[in-house]
């Protein structure tokens, strides 16, 4: 059946159906003329996806759940934790509305603040685009609370680094180039990229084996005049200089590894993957 019919039966828009196909949640048959042909099973799957979405699950969560049904338990725990935090916040706001001085609630507010995720704390301390930039790169590894003294110390080191380091600034020309050539990613798309990156690192030997030509072509492009004379190369060099001169590798990254167990796990996978890549390229 055509997309218009399947969309009507699943009570979805055609754009939603196309989006789910692009995200790998649906695999209709592609006809010789390039049109998609949907089956009865596709209708049922779309109806199921629609129900998951009404329950508040993101596309990334639905994909993870379909691949690993046990992931639903993690989603439930995250929702329960968020609900508990919201309820505690509402209770404190109710107390304020009833006339209790905020000074009397300081201890309870402090206790609630300790439960906030690292990323939430950073956004509160750096509400500008500077904080958003850090969040874009690291938010998926900072969605956890600070639980130990070592984490608290590492967090303070991150705050001090961000507060005392001049932000990375590009020329107007390079900024315009970056804006024109960089897509605007949604939170879900960023999470999708993170999941893909994690999966690639978890099975890196297979990834390299299946993509050896692509990897070699990438390195060849990085050494070509087309890249060496491009604005992208200029941006890369300026970023490299910023990282080296600001103490990014010596201060920020070590603190990130100590504050976030999930980032430390990712970092170790990255080191192993880099070592393996060098062996394959020899």
Task: Describe this structure as you would to a colleague.
- The chain is mainly alpha-helical and 282 residues long.
- The chain has three domains: 3-57, Multidrug-efflux Transporter Regulator, Chain: A, Domain 2 (Orthogonal Bundle); 70-115, no CATH class; 152-281, no CATH class.
- Helix content is 74%, strand content 1%.
- The chain is built from 17 helices and two strands.
- The protein has helices spanning 3-10, 14-22, 40-54, 59-67, 71-97, 106-114, 118-125, 129-138, 149-164, 172-181, 187-202, 204-210, 212-222, 225-228, 231-246, 248-259, 261-281, and strands at 29-30, 36-37.
- A two-stranded antiparallel ribbon has the order 1-2.
- A hairpin with a 5-residue loop joins strand 1 (29-30) and strand 2.
- Helix 7 runs antiparallel to helix 8, helix 9 (149-164) packs antiparallel against helix 16 and helix 11 packs across helix 12 (204-210).
- It is globular and about 70 Å long.
- One of its GO terms (molecular function) is DNA binding.
- Residues 1-68 form the HTH merR-type domain.
- Pfam families: MerR_1.
């Amino acid at each position: 059946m055509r997309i218009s019919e399947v969309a009507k039966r699943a009570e979805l828009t055609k754009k939603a159906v196309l989006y789910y196909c692009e995200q790998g949640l649906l695999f209709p048959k592609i006809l010789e003329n390039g049109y998609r042909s949907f089956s009865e099973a596709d209708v049922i799957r779309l109806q199921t996806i629609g129900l998951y979405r009404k329950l508040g699950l993101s596309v990334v969560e639905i994909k993870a759940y379909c691949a690993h049904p046990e992931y639903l338990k993690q989603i439930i725990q995250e929702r329960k934790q968020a609900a508990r935090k919201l309820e505690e916040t509402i209770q404190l706001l109710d107390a304020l509305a009833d006339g209790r001085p905020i000074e009397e609630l300081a201890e309870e507010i402090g206790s609630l603040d300790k439960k906030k995720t690292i990323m939430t704390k950073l956004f509160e301390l750096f509400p500008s685009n500077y904080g958003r930039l850090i969040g874009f790169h690291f938010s998926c590894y900072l969605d956890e609370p600070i639980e130990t003294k070592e984490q608290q110390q590492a967090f303070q080191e991150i705050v001090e680094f961000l507060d005392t380091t001049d932000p990375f600034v590009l020329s107007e020309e390079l900024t315009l180039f970056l804006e024109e050539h960089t897509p605007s990613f949604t939170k879900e798309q960023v999470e999708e990229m993170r999941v893909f990156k994690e999966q690639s690192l978890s099975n890196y030997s297979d990834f390299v084996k299946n993509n050896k030509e692509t990897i070699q072509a990438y390195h060849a492009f990085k050494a070509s005049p087309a890249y060496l004379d491009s604005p992208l190369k200029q941006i890369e060099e300026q970023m490299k200089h910023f990282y080296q001169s600001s103490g990014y590798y010596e201060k920020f990254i070590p603190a990130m590894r100590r504050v976030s167990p999930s980032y430390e796990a990712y970092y170790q996978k990255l080191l192993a993957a880099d070592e393996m890549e060098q062996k394959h390229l020899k």
